[in-house]
Write a structure and sequence with these properties.
This protein is of the alpha/beta class and 419 residues long. Helices cover 33% and strands 19% of the residues. The strands form four sheets. Strands 1, 2, 3, 4, 5 and 6 form a six-stranded mixed beta sheet that branches. The chain has a five-stranded parallel beta sheet with strand order 10-9-8-11-12, sandwiched between helices. α9 runs antiparallel to α13.
């Protein structure tokens, strides 16, 4: 039985066998791509972005911007576009109706069946997706950096990426993910979206969502699992390094704060847009394609700065919930109440003046100082692993630095294509 993804359509996998790929790419123009596009080639080819079969054409981009839907009517919130300048289009011989080979770091990666070359108003795109044209918003800045033209067409992966260590075990495709869930006997799976090392506030978000997702099911069987789906993509200085993110999330299971029966860690290649409510819709689609039934959404989901209200993502999701095949698990802000002596949720107790929020900035400063924080804030095993990752992968720092960006081992590589 085919795995069904977003829009009730079978998961799209567009992957060519090496022997066929070697023949297909002969004589085709080669077009180099940057890391964001390479990430999205993977997302399209393995079905993370189903029902998309390639980069969007003008009709889809226009419909997504104006209606938050693909041209066929399916809900979709963020354009997936391939951009090139007029000069590059001429230089690489890109023409509508003619396929090209996309190369990454000098090696063939995918065949792009070019269908359409078009222009689109980038200011209008930014306003539609982010609700602002302020270049201080990272998603807006990304949009304005797009080149002159957009190119639509189908993508077929010609060369599977080599996932480098320590990430190998965590790259699980949508079709493979369903097998993992079946092996565990999970009937309901709730997603935890992250790009961070977990502190106990994150842990309690997951545990609260797990409990809500279990609901009326009998407790004596492992019916419900939490999938931590870490977003791995473009890094900015000051972010946690990718190795620390993925390994510490899994450490919660390994150290017993969760168990094999209810916790799994994976990754998705995606450059965050920080689109707040619109990105919450996109995350719902992505996790539907991964086979999940539920998705937790906390305060200011995928937001940045003060561009979005605390619960704007919840409110937008509610408007299209009937068209999404995933159930949202909404959460308020998790914090520590010293009067109650426990981690609690905003609004549960009446000691507001004493509440202490889990400040990411404060926690990062503690980590940066190398001082082990109280276990109520940071599990000691997680903290120790962060420090280990700093030495092993981060050139002495658990946070992204210029040296890390220059010298790190990439998460994946595209090697020379062999039949």
């Amino acid at each position: 039985m085919a795995a069904i993804g977003h829009g009730g359509k079978p998961i799209v996998e567009r992957i060519m066998e090496p022997a066929e790929a070697v023949k297909k790419i002969q004589g085709l123009p080669q077009v180099p791509i940057r890391s964001q596009i390479a990430n999205e080639v993977i997302g399209i080819s393995y079905g993370f972005f189903s029902p998309l079969e390639g980069f969007m054409n003008q009709a889809d981009v226009d419909s997504v911007c104006k209606k938050m839907r693909l041209a066929n009517g399916n809900v979709w919130s963020i354009p997936i576009v391939f951009d090139k300048s007029d000069d590059e289009i001429h230089e690489f011989g890109i023409k509508a109706g003619s396929p090209v080979v996309l190369t990454f770091h000098g090696n063939p990666m995918a065949i792009f069946e070019v269908e359409e070359i078009f222009s689109y108003d980038k200011e209008a795109m930014a306003q539609a997706i982010y609700g602002t044209t302020d270049v201080k918003h990272p998603g807006v800045a990304r949009t304005y950096k797009y080149k002159d033209k957009f190119i639509g067409g189908k993508i077929t992966l010609a060369n599977r990426p080599k996932i480098n260590e320590p990430f190998g075990p965590y790259f699980i495709t949508p079709i493979e993910m369903r097998k993992k869930f079946e092996e565990r006997g999970w009937k309901r799976i709730v997603a935890h979206q992250t790009r961070n090392v977990p502190h106990t506030g994150h842990e309690w978000l997951m545990k609260g969502a797990w409990s809500q997702t279990y609901a009326e099911l009998p407790i004596d069987k492992p019916y419900v699992g939490v999938l931590v789906n870490a977003i791995i993509g473009e890094k900015r200085k000051g972010d946690y390094i990718d190795e620390a993110i993925i390994l510490t999330q899994d450490e919660l299971r390994k150290s017993g704060y969760f168990g094999d029966h209810n916790h799994l860690t994976s990754l998705t290649f995606w450059d965050m847009r920080y689109a707040g409510p619109k990105e919450a819709i996109f995350h719902s689609i992505l996790r539907t394609n991964l086979g999940l039934t539920h998705h937790m959404f906390g305060r200011d989901h995928a937001g940045v700065g003060t561009y979005y209200g605390a619960y704007d993502a919840h409110n937008l999701l509610a408007t299209v919930q009937d068209e999404l095949a995933i159930t949202p698990v909404y959460s308020m802000n998790w914090l520590y109440c010293p009067h109650c002596g426990e981690v609690t949720s905003e609004g549960l107790c009446n000691h507001k003046s004493e509440w202490q929020k889990f400040s990411g900035t404060l926690i990062r400063s503690i980590v940066d100082d190398g001082v082990k924080p109280p276990r109520l804030i940071f599990r000691p095993e997680v903290f120790d692993l962060v420090m280990e990752c700093a030495e092993k992968y981060g050139f002495g720092s658990p946070f992204v630095t210029d040296e890390y960006l220059e010298k790190r081992t990439p998460v994946f590589s595209i090697e020379p294509l062999k039949a």
